[in-house]
TrEMBL record:
Keyword set, alphabetical order: Methyltransferase, Transferase
Span of domain Methyltransferase type: 100-174
Protein name: Methyltransferase type 11
Alphabetical GO biological process terms: methylation
Coiled-coil zones: none
Keyword tRNA processing (UniProt): no
Leader sequence segment: none
Length: 254
């Protein structure tokens, strides 16, 4: 209901801005500008202090369908660089627009989360699964998508190893995270369970870390992956989709 109200409000508010400027690659609508999204006051200090690229900004939400910049970046890559038609895909904590795109491509999707009820409106067949103990055989999937989930998982290294295990050789993973290039080491308290402290330290009440980008890439390599980071500046063709400024893409392959 809340999302319906927000979508209705933005459609009315941004009606005067319909036209060329940005194009949503989820719904196809065009606007001179998209809607902003800002962090809550309790989160802002940590995000600003550490210069975290975390999915906030002036052109964050499509006024028509409420797609986010992080969804539009992933869909841009899936549409142009990572073939998904007919592929076996494990979608962790499925995002609505990414999941819908995968269905349109007739991918074979298995979606999971540790709290599956939260996602049943996205996929009524979603299964329970802990990312650190995936209930799937080795080499079961062509692609694993877990967009912005690792910052929530206390034992992220174990989750990375599990994702590596269930991917077939040559398979790929999409595991984008909020990150900072201004810190030399990841800031984390994996066993923390204090939403106020988590907001103050990590910029969101359910995060357990802020990744230093270089450290995150190394953790993925330690899990066995081949990792290459594609810089934001190379995504000029995607700028029309209002992707997150300065967010590059992490290409992850088994």
């Amino acid at each position: 209901m809340l999302q319906y109200v927000q979508r209705t409000r933005l459609r009315l508010q941004y009606r005067p801005y319909k036209g060329r400027g940005f194009t949503c690659n989820c719904c196809g609508k065009q606007y001179e500008k998209f809607a902003p999204r800002y962090p809550a006051a309790e989160d802002k200090q940590a995000l600003d202090k550490h210069h975290v690229i975390a999915g906030y900004g002036e052109e964050e939400l499509c006024p028509w369908c409420l797609s986010t910049s992080r969804e539009r970046l992933v869909i841009g890559l899936l549409a142009t660089q990572i073939p998904v038609a007919g592929k076996r895909i494990l979608h962790l904590s499925p995002e609505p627009k990414v999941f819908a795109f995968l269905k349109q491509q007739q991918a074979v999707i298995t979606s999971t989360d540790i709290t599956p009820g939260f996602y049943q409106k996205i996929d009524k067949h979603i299964q329970y699964a802990d990312a650190t103990q995936l209930p799937f055989p080795d080499n079961a999937f062509d692609l694993v998508i877990g967009n912005h989930i690792m910052e929530h998982i206390p034992n992220d290294r174990l989750a990375m190893r599990e994702i590596y295990r269930v991917l077939q050789p040559g398979g790929r993973a999409i595991l984008q995270v909020p990150f900072s290039e201004s810190i030399s080491n990841t800031l984390e308290v994996p066993d923390i369970n204090d939403p106020k402290q988590q907001s103050a330290l990590f910029g969101q009440k359910d995060h357990v870390r802020i990744y230093a980008l270089k450290d995150y890439l190394q953790r993925l390599r330690d899990a066995g992956f081949t990792v290459n980071y594609q810089l934001y500046g190379s995504f000029i063709a995607y700028f029309q989709y209002a992707i997150q400024p300065l967010e590059g893409f992490i290409h992850i392959t088994k």
